[in-house]
Design a protein that fits this description.
By secondary structure, the protein is of the alpha+beta class. The chain contains 3 helices and 5 strands. The chain has helices spanning 62-70, 77-86, 96-106, and strands at residues 3-12, 15-24, 35-45, 55-60, 74-75. Strands 4-3-2-1-5 form a 5-stranded mixed β-sheet. The radius of gyration is 17 Å and the shape is globular.
Length: 107
Amino acid sequence: MVLKIRLARFGRRNAPFYNIVVAQARSARNSKPLEVLGTYDPIPKPPVSGEGKPIKDIKLDTSRAKYWLGVGAQPSEPAWRLLSMIGLLEPKYHGQMKGREEREEVR
């Protein structure tokens, strides 16, 4: 049984809200998950103090996320990004640096 940590979308049109869930890899995006690890609200909220940058809300049960990563659950790309922002995973670096390194190796 292949497990994925991924985002399940809720909310209404133009106001997304995501649950961070553990589900079987072949199940549908919004089907019933094995476990809900937390939530992610991508709409920036103003900070409490009124000064500074708007904040995107991420709530996650880190102990359960560590457990599921330990038993082999594979995070999707957006879930990987969120888990790396919290500090559970190393960030993936994509983009121009990868292509530049490959070209230098060919020379």
